[in-house]
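Morning, I've got a small favour to ask if you have a moment. I've dropped the whole record in just underneath, so have a look.
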Amino acid sequence: MFITVLAAPTNMKPILFNNVEFKEIMQYMQELVKQSATIEDEQTKEFISEILKYYDLMHREPLSRMLQAIESSYPDLKDTLKQDYTINTLLELYDFESTNLPNIQKKT
């Protein structure tokens, strides 16, 4: 079986939104998380915290596996990924060192 991999361009084309819009979304999400900390009802606050925790875990594991597959099968692709703002931001959100993809570790 032969697989041809095309390198993604350095400036990847936005799919759903551009880098500016992505940054705005990130800022809004951060504000929502901050606001959730001010909820007075403890049960609601814990519920939201639990949703965020499992949302994180649900994405962290597959992302870890994808990065491991990329590193083992297409090590040169990591350089292209590191150049993309949105990808680097995602790696930082999930505590992956975007400059050193092979060292995939979970934050404990």
